[in-house]
Amino acid sequence: xxxxxxxxxxxxxNPFVGFPEIYTTMSTYLHIPLVLMLVGxxxxxxxxxxxxxxxxxxxxxxxYTQIFxxxxxxxxFFLGLIAAATVSHSINPDAVGFLxxxxxxxxxxxxxxxxxxxxALCVLILLLSFH
Length: 131
Description:
Layout: H1 2-10, H2 20-29, H3 31-53, H4 60-87, H5 98-102, H6 109-129
């Protein structure tokens, strides 16, 4: 136990040590888009795996493909929303009410625009990778 605590205390193994204020703010006030982004990542990976390793080729393949496509759009969209809320300083910890604290800080025109722009960038990278 002693060596484990030494490693944790002295080796900067925690990736959030450098930016604790941003990490706590994002994980507290942006937990809804963070969870939705993580659901997109998990759904994309799961659909890819099930589509590839399913032994029977049937209608489930179509469902897996649709989940993969939808999650491929969902994940960068919420990543853009999170980036927009962080950069624009729209998070107000002094706000009162659930919607003001946890929804309106990221669900605004700027956040949606950056989210759509992030999706467009991912589509552009996809198209350029086929060229």
